[in-house]
């Protein structure tokens, strides 16, 4: 099941990257910048603590969701590559996809993987009427968001 989930996120990551106009596979990537499409480390280092949300992370994730839902993004929260990808067309597409969900009532962290160059955290957003949405965030060592991975049925 876990392998299937990782495969799904890899596929969705590729799709999102393709949709938002990333460079072609194999193109030069600045040194030290992880590609959101591939894992740099075959064996992620486990977190020393269970995946829990700190109040600061809750506010950040909730803020990013609210901004994306409004079709906006705060450039200070994302790394340079994500700021390039979050152009007006991409933001409009994400806004349209998030519109049916509304405002989340609960946000939980469901898993966390830490590598030497980035941290992946899966967040589940719960909404009224039993709806939920999982979004994977990739954070660089400076806490900037380097990638967002939406589920394959997200459109």
From TrEMBL:
- Its recorded name reads DUF3887 domain-containing protein
Region Disordered, as annotated, extends over 31-51
Organism of this sequence: mine drainage metagenome
